[in-house]
Design goal:
The chain is mainly alpha-helical. It has two domains: 400 residues, Growth Hormone, Chain: A, CATH 1.20.1250.20; 64 residues. The chain is 78% helix and 0% strand. Helix 3 packs antiparallel against helix 9 and helix 9 packs antiparallel against helix 10. The protein is globular, with a radius of gyration of 21 Å.
């Protein structure tokens, strides 16, 4: 999915952790703690981008159609999107190191299950367990990182973490493609095991098992409603998009509509439940009293939705329609993380001087142009004339947006809400990709001319979503973002 973007959208979680007293660090083995956080987070960064490249091989090996391949991606993204916030809250209650290590163990065991999966159902089950593990390890890894450093040291640590994450996102598709070409798709899940073992060893030795000084009761009702609602919506979108009216029975369409309706009801109940809990909710509705935060949330959902869908489809089309090997398809995505890694720091500095509104408005528009150029991928022409220009423009546009987005999210809410706001923004980034992947099952099921036609339609939809993201930033943000007033 958008794993190559996750270091950027996640680093606000670490930056939003409560500041410590003045000083450089508060942890005796801070550098080892940083290494632990990097190794744990790399499990999520590498795995998702690798799986995208492996979809054609998985589909051929397990006889998976478009809906099945969508679930290979969304089986991971769904629990991660729905349970990211509750995973962080569990760390506050039971200890961040304990939840980090539990998440890493679960992720490693699930990776073994994915590698050994005898059928599509077992593979999806493994991906769901990987998502559950990531929902535990990601927020607690970042909370540990944010709590272990202060002042200038925190900025350096978060920057190092993000840079390594971006490098992992760049190497992941290339390494995964090579493994698929030489050893088969099952090998891509074994590359998680060395990182998991190292993260566990370092966490056990160097990371303190800190508890939050105070915390509200866990919002299990909200987490359950969010997970159930998103599952129903995802299943409904997948069924609806994977079956055309001509080829599907009325029953499958009716089930899709029923699932979408049930999902909408469950998500409405989720909003009601969160309103009842006030500031103790995992998603306090007070956040949305801020127009800038609403604009940033819409931008994140739409922009990462456009990007997430496209990053699943581009390697798939390159392999299926253009005859690329998995290694070549992975290498085709390299411009994206490389350009962002090289330019996002400068874009962040520019946003600090000029305010985030302009960059957050222009960046998505550039992404939209890149999505339009991406309609040429899979057609006649070389990589240099078709894929590279699209990837380069998308990368430049994302570079304009990712660093200012991190700063703007933290500035758009009051100090008491920075942690949950950054976590919610990260969850929305994944939710955008979840929705996009569920809606494109028909593309993954198509072949030949139909595949290219549907892919082009999806690229145009992605361009429209990116334009909407830029407009939401322009209309709802100010150069000096406002803050949410704490609710009583």
């Amino acid at each position: 999915m958008t794993q190559t973007m996750h270091p950027a959208c996640d680093k606000a979680i670490a930056q939003g952790a409560p500041q410590q007293a003045a000083g450089v660090t508060r942890t005796p083995h801070a550098n080892w703690v940083l290494a632990t956080c990097i190794l744990a987070s790399s499990l999520a960064f590498i795995d998702g981008s690798v799986v995208n490249v492996g979809l054609p091989a998985i589909g051929q090996s397990l006889s998976a159609g478009g809906a099945g391949l969508s679930w290979v991606v969304n089986g991971y993204t769904l629990p991660l999107s729905a349970l990211l916030l509750i995973g962080g809250a569990l760390g506050d209650v039971y200890g961040r190191r304990r939840l980090l290590m539990l998440g890493v163990v679960l992720f490693a065991l699930a990776s073994v299950l994915c590698a050994a999966a005898p059928s599509l159902g077992w593979l999806v089950a493994g991906r769901v367990l990987q998502g559950l593990g990531a929902a535990l390890l990601m927020p607690n890894s970042l909370a540990i990182l944010g709590a272990s450093f202060s002042g200038v040291a925190r900025g350096r640590a978060v920057g190092t973490w993000a840079a390594v994450g971006a490098a992992a996102g760049a190497v992941g598709p290339l390494l995964g493609g090579w493994l698929i070409d030489t050893m088969g798709w099952r090998a891509i899940f074994f590359i998680n095991l060395p990182s998991a073992a190292a993260a566990l060893a370092l966490a056990a030795r160097y990371v303190p098992n800190e508890l939050a000084a105070s915390h509200p009761p866990l919002d299990w009702r909200g987490a359950t409603l969010a997970a159930a609602g998103l599952t129903a919506m995802t299943w409904g979108l997948t069924v609806a998009s994977s079956s055309s009216p001509e080829s599907s029975s009325g029953g499958s369409q009716a089930m899709a509509v029923a699932a979408l309706g049930a999902g909408a009801v469950l998500l409405a109940l989720f909003v009601w439940a969160e309103n009842q809990r006030g500031n103790a909710a995992m998603m306090p509705l007070a956040l949305f009293s801020s127009a800038p935060f609403i604009g940033l949330s819409l931008l994140t959902l739409l922009l990462y939705g456009a990007l997430g869908g496209l990053l699943v489809l581009v390697p798939y089309v390159l392999i299926q329609a253009s005859g690329y090997s998995a290694t070549q398809a992975g290498a085709a995505l390299l411009p994206l993380p490389l350009v962002i890694a090289l330019t996002s720091s400068r874009m962040g500095q520019l946003a600090t001087r000029r305010g985030p509104r302009l960059l957050l408005s222009v960046g998505p528009m550039i992404v939209a142009v890149g999505c339009v150029l991406a309609t040429r991928i899979g057609g006649p022409g070389s990589y240099w004339l078709t894929t590279l220009p699209a990837m380069a423009l998308i990368a430049i546009g994302m570079a304009c947006a990712v660093a200012p987005l991190t700063t703007a999210v933290l500035a758009s809410v009051s100090a008491q809400h920075t942690g949950v706001a950054s976590g919610l923004n990260s969850a929305l980034a994944r939710l955008g990709g979840l929705i996009a992947t569920a809606a494109m099952s028909a593309v993954l099921a198509a072949q030949g001319a139909e595949l290219l036609a549907l892919y082009k339609m999806a690229a145009w939809v992605a361009a429209g979503a990116a334009v909407a993201a830029g407009l939401s930033a322009w209309m709802l943000l100010k150069d000096a973002t406002g803050a949410v007033k704490p609710s009583n």
